[in-house]
Every structure is written in structure tokens, then in C-alpha cells.
Amino acid sequence: MSTETASLSPVTPRRFQFGWVLPALFSPRKTFARIAEQTGDVWLTPLLIMMALALVGVIVAGPIKQAAAQSGQTLPPDFQFLSPDQQAQFMQAQAASSGPVFVYVFPAILAVLTIWVGWLLVVGLLHLVLTLVGGRGSTRTAMNVVAWASLPFAVREVVAIGVMLTTRQLVNGAGLSGFAPTEGVLGAFLAPLLGLVDIYLVWHVALLALGVRAGNGLSGRKAAGGVLLTMAIVLALQALPGFILAQLGNLDIARPFFF
Q1: Which of 45, 156, 211, 258 is least crowded, fewest Cβ atoms below 10 Å from its Cβ?
Q2: Three-class SS string for 56-125?
Q3: What pTM, to 2 d.p., does this model score?
Q4: What is the Cα–Cα distance from 21 to 7, expressed in whole angstroms?
Q5: Mean pLDDT over residues 208-231, rounded?
């Protein structure tokens, strides 16, 4: 009797599942079906991978940023028209911002916070949207699926690190921002929003849809619709800071450091 009971008891999944990484990227249908059926937390592995790669990216980018600052590549276009005092102030500020704290510590903290906050934001919104359309998945399932579906961003980081190591230049991806209107309020909002859209985001959305369909008992159409609505909200929230800055100060729109 005791043997039979033990065989029927649920098996607690291992906390680290590095063997799922490549299957999640390249054989996702079976892998996400397995992830969605887990009764425990298996979200830590992909988050650790993304954090480690983000920190490596910060370390690789640090010397490139410092070299650019020392060579004057980061000077504003109207630098020659500033007064000597203003030029001296700018150079002092640039020297301070090229120190280790600004080049390594702050970007590292921002990178780690971005991964965790971005993950929790997508989990919360996705679970809410799926519940509204009839999904039966738990918050734990959403946490697991979103974490593993974020692995394409780890691939993007690997590519960026490789480019920086070979070219000694920073990677400033702009996604589809070139297709945004160049004038007006709509263009000011669409430029940062479309700048977030790239092949890795599309890959992420596809993996999310697979995991959502497997873990929520939804049809393919409802799963895809729920994921697309969630990502539209997330992208709009990410584009909002750049839009506000552009409207208030007529500043150049920079890509937010999300996903």
C-alpha cells in the first residue's frame, strides 16, 4: 500500500532545468507542453541565463563606452558652439559618467532589475488577460511559461555580445523604428514602440502562444489573441517614457532598456 501511494504522489520538479534550454528554443511544442504541466516552479533557469548574459554584455560594453568617451565620439553635434565654460562642464560630466560606477555598476543593476520587472509585468498582464478570455491556467503556469518563452532574448544578447567583441562597437538596435512616421505625435509614439519589435520579440510571442495554449485549455485563436493583446500593452508601456520625453523636451528618442 505504501509503495502504491508513493508512486502516485506528485514529483517535485528540479529547480534547475538546463537540459530544457535548447529544446525550448528549437523543439518548443513538446517542451512547452511539458513546462505548462509542471506543478512546481521551474522559472529560475531561464532568468538566471538571461541575467548572466546581461551582466556579460555590460562587462563587454564597458570598455567600448569608455573608449568612445575618451575619443570624443559622444560629443553633442553643437559642441563647438558652446562657450568654453560650457564645454569644460560637459567634459567634466562626461568624465564622471565614464567612471566604473556609471559604466558597470548602474547598467548591471538596471539590466537585472529590467529582467525581473519585465518578467513579472508580463506574467501579471498575461494571467489577467487569459483569465478574462476563459483560460484555466494558474499564476505559477504563467510564471513558468513566460520565463522559458523569454529565452530568445538571451539569444539576442549572445548575438550582441559577439558583435561587440568582433567589431568593438556598441549594438544600437532600432527594430522597425525606421517605418514610423517622422513627424507628429503619432510618429513620436510609434518610433520607440516599433524600435522594440525585432525577430527575437516575434520568436518570444510564438513561444508564449505555444505555452499558453498548452497550459490554459484555450483554442489556438484565443491563445494567440491573449498573447498579442498582452504584448501590445507591454510594448505601449515601454514606449511611453520615450514618447513623454520627446514631447516634453523635444529629445531624441532612445530605445528603453526592456526585454
Answers
A1: 258
A2: HHHHHHHHHHHHHHHHCCCCCCCHHHCCHHHHHHHHHHHHHHCCHHHHHHHHHHHHHHHHHHHHHHHHHH
A3: 0.80
A4: 28
A5: 91
